[in-house]
Amino acid sequence: MKMNARFAAVVLGAGLFLVPAVTIAQGPPPGAGYGQGGYGQGGPGYGQRPGGPGGPGGWDAPPSDYTRDIQRNGFRDGMQGAQRDFDNRRRPNVNNRDEYRNYRGPERRVYRQAFDRGYRAWWDHSRMGGRRPY
Q1: Which is more confidently placed, 53 or 113?
Q2: Around 111, how many Cα atoms within 13 Å sit in the side-chain half-sphere?
Q3: Mean pLDDT score of the chain, rounded to an integer?
Q4: Cα separation of 78 and 73, whole Å?
Q5: pLDDT tens track for 26-38
Q6: CA–CA separation, 55 vs 65, rounded Å?
Q7: Which pLDDT score, from 0 to 100, does residue 86 have?
Q8: R_g of the chain computed on alpha carbons
Q9: What's the CA gap between 115 and 132, in Å, rounded?
Q10: Which residues contact 81 (CB under 8 A, 6 or more apart)?
């Protein structure tokens, strides 16, 4: 019986010591500014501009002559389609994108031109200065 009591005291004492030690090793909990900046937190950090992706002046921003939503959406969708093709190791071919071929909304020609321009802009950037495909 004394052996069980000693064993329980050792285990309990170790547990009371380890819980605060783990808490101290982790540091304090995040403050009010958590998630407001830094890498991967949504704020300006590595690879991000204050305007965010597609912000003013970035390589991935829609051209300034795209003043209509249909053009900006087509450009953005083209960039996202090119990114997906890269991620899935597909050859760069805008005609293989369902979003490009099957768009049935208003002003189909305008959307497809903007999509094509965004698609090509992403691939040109990836070949010239961004991530290298394959």
Answers
A1: 113
A2: 14
A3: 73
A4: 8
A5: 555 555 444 444 4
A6: 15
A7: 92
A8: 26
A9: 21
A10: 94, 97, 99, 100, 115, 118, 119
Q: State the Cα–Cα distance between residues 114 and 78, nearest whole angstrom.
A: 7
Instruction: Determine the Cα–Cα distance for residues 122 and 24; give it in Å rounded to an integer.
Output: 46
| pLDDT(78) > 80 | yes
Token pair of 36, please?
């407001």
* Contact present, 71 and 114 (Cβ < 8 Å): yes
Place of tokens 């961004």: 130
Mean pLDDT of 65-77: 93
Q: Using CA atoms in the order 125, 129, 131, 134, what is the torsion angle rounded to 10 degrees?
A: 80
> Which tokens go with 45?
């950090």
**Between 132 and 114, whose confidence is greater?**
114
Distance CA 132, CA 40 (A): 22
